[in-house]
């Protein structure tokens, strides 16, 4: 539970508007009462991540992440509750009283620190092994790739060796517990062999966070082994979708842009050539988390993916992610060479710099890539291409930008501008409707915003409870109508009942605030489940009578489930009396008619 007074936590939340805090790392666009953007906690193409300023809550309809400003910072920065509170207090200029960590918090912090120390020791082990006779193969590989000793040392590159469990044995001798070695992602465990090294015969690339702490590794196999590249698994300190290789150095670059490339060697070669603004994703596609990380340091991204078809596809996938995060993306052309490493070796740093500065506008790169799929000499193929161009233009939110791009596209592809504008005008409403549908938006009557009733949504007590708790949290009038028939103990044991207790208590005391309620759940690492209970989609209802009928059905459903649970707990004494009571209770439910 929170270790600070509720009044202090409330002030910290009040001084850190959730839209401002989240908007600093996620591009948000207002739509009705909410702000929407791409969720930073999972990959998605259309923003289902919702932030509500009035409620001071966020919720993702795609992955279920949710909570208030404190739980967002906990999830996004991977902070403990107290760390998140301190971060927000510092942001608001609030001095926190001294607190003593709980034994559990101390254990968690100590374990996390042990994992970081274990990873650091592993990095030293791999580096020393690289310069030993056993590491000759790895060192020759790096030298043949043109890396200097200074570059190898700067990036802490190493070699894992061919030992069965040499790294594990080394770390054990350094005093690290098996649980720590396992949590650091440095070993494999099997019944037959026990604990063995995860990395075998690989050149090792330490992955560092923005504070230059080793949080994981990438390993490139020597020879024909598979997979060619092997990364650390996600751990308590390593989240590949929110870290980028080389960012610990690139974040300090004075260049106005950052260069995003595909692999470790590209980043290292570019840094060695003086392009210290280069970064790469960690063996995964470019994600919203990567875009949001970049957005802390720049608004301008230059994509330097491989010049083959796979690289072009990767760029096409990354461009909308950048755009949705508020980043301007351009694509660097590397032809006739495959990647930045080859290009710089062949033509030098000066020519590469020219290519970076001449990078192509991402919108026209996307159109050029789409054009490959059509026969532009055929009228039908040309029409299909122009239709796709119109849809892409419709997706540009800013009207002035859209207007300028329409003129530019018409000129570049010899399309009559008037015809293109008509096609875009037709495509815009369809795009907006599709975007709203993917976000779960529907036309909502009145303050509560409850959509059309769907009886399938009431299949299951858990869903019925979520609907009712959300409705009560949205409208005090619903709570007033329901409290006569349902008590908090009528809800299922666990988070649902805890939430009901807090809603009932809050309204009775006149202090109900959904974001305040979630603070307690965040302290117990239960914010996601709690947020889901009061952020469930409520369907449109056409009339007051239908609203009342829907509410009545919810109450009856939950009350029946509560009676069923009570029946299961029955101790067996006087069964006839028990049966009469159950029958009377069920008959009384039929007479419930709730008015709002």
Could you say which overall geometry the principal axes of the C-alpha atoms support? Answer: globular
- Under CATH, the topology of the largest domain can be stated as DNAb Helicase, Chain A
Provide a count of the helices.
Answer: 25
Mean pLDDT: 86
State Rg: 29 Å
How much helix is in the residues?
40-55%
What is the strand content?
A: 5-15%
Task: Outline the structure in words.
This protein has 5 domains: 6-92, Alpha-Beta Complex (DNA Primase, Chain A), CATH 3.90.580.10; 103-238, DNA primase DNAg catalytic core, N-terminal domain (Alpha-Beta Complex), CATH 3.90.980.10; 242-347, 3-Layer(aba) Sandwich (Dna Topoisomerase Vi A Subunit, Chain: A, domain 2); 373-437, no CATH class; 451-590, Orthogonal Bundle (DNAb Helicase, Chain A), CATH 1.10.860. By secondary structure, the chain is α+β, with helices and mostly antiparallel strands. The protein is globular, with a radius of gyration of 29 Å. Mean pLDDT is 86; it is low at 439-459. The chain contains 25 helices and 18 strands. It has a 5-stranded antiparallel sheet. A 5-stranded mixed sheet has the order 13-12-14-15-16. A 4-stranded antiparallel sheet has the order 6-9-10-11.
